Amino acid sequence: MANISDIGIDLGTSQILIYMKGKGIILREPTVVAIDRDTRNVLAYGDEARRMIGRTPGSILAIRPLRDGTISDFELVSFMLKSFVTKAIGKHLFARPHAVLALPTSVNEMEKRSLISTMFNAGMHRTQLLNRSLAAALGAGLPMDEAYGAMIVDISAGVTDIAVLSFGKVVVSDCAKVGGDRFDDAIIRHLRRKHNLLIGERTAEELKINIGSAIPRAEQLFMEVTGRNLITGLPKTMRITSDDITEAIDEPLQQLIESIHGVLEHTPAELAADIFEFGILLSGGGSELFGLCEAISDALKVPCTCAEDPQTNVVMGCGRALENMRDLGRFLDDGRRRR
């Protein structure tokens, strides 16, 4: 019989990562589903579905059922979660592993309980939830049992989770509706307004990753992109500069900085002093934007660093909890209603 191990899951807005105990990360795929518009039958999911975005006929929709940190289509999210778990561990009739699941913060309690039931149907014996900020802190290697304040800012595609931690507890937190998707949307709007050029989500993401910057670069970068000229309606290729992207993302960047500032304002004085000394730690895929640490540090006058391999912090935190249940199991929750 195949070897069965416990798993940790980071179900994010844009991708899902699965960690298997003793093996590390075994699955990383986009949370995209392609469905038939009329019958709603699922045609593809994951990498295969993502390749369809912007390239499907009208009868097929390639969508992300998690948007802005919330579930827009629970049925599709449930199907997707079950399918990815089965793909990662296979189908097993007798041995039922244990799972630790990190969900977007905005998922409500009823949806959490329903997803735990989905996990049971996918073959899990027991599923426990782990707060995303705590998971990111564990994955980044922050000390969890020390009496000083630590701020972690987890920037995902849909939302940004901001938390101040002390003694392994969340003292102050906020969930800002700003993430990688908001930066992509800002780039699309900017190019449409300034250059009359219409591009898609994938092109905007490529611009952000390849030449995007939160601060003006010392050396200008360029990227050729092809979109539709809104005046002629014909395809058009244009050279876009890194300064274009910096200008485009300024508004969501300022919203992000204001959200972090708001959490700092509500942080107890002693913990705030610790943060001003030790700094802010950025996590999540959105934290890899060039110059983001510098922009936040300059605006708030607080040191800011990016975690090592920030995209995997949350799932690695789930993995650490699995590997060391005796010491870290206290951070887990069964998702049951508390009286």
Summarize the structure.
By secondary structure, this protein is α+β, with helices and mostly antiparallel strands. Helices cover 37% and strands 27% of the residues. The protein is built from twelve helices and 19 strands.
Rg from C-alpha positions? 21 Å
Per DSSP, what share of the residues sits in E-state strands of 2 or more residues? 25-35%
Looking at the overall shape, the CATH architecture of the largest domain is: 2-Layer Sandwich
Taking all residues together, what is the mean pLDDT? 90
Low-confidence region ranges: none
Strand order of the largest sheet: 3-2-1-9-10-19
CATH class of the largest domain: Alpha Beta
Number of DSSP strands? 19
As for the CATH topology of the largest domain, it is: Nucleotidyltransferase, domain 5
Integer tally of domains? 2
Q: What share of residues is helical?
A: 25-40%
Shape from CA axes? Answer: flat
Count, helices: 12
Major sheet: size, sense and barrel closure?
6 strands, mixed
* The CATH superfamily title of the largest domain: ATPase, nucleotide binding domain
Beginning-to-end CA distance, first to last residue: 42 Å
Q: Name the structural class.
A: alpha+beta
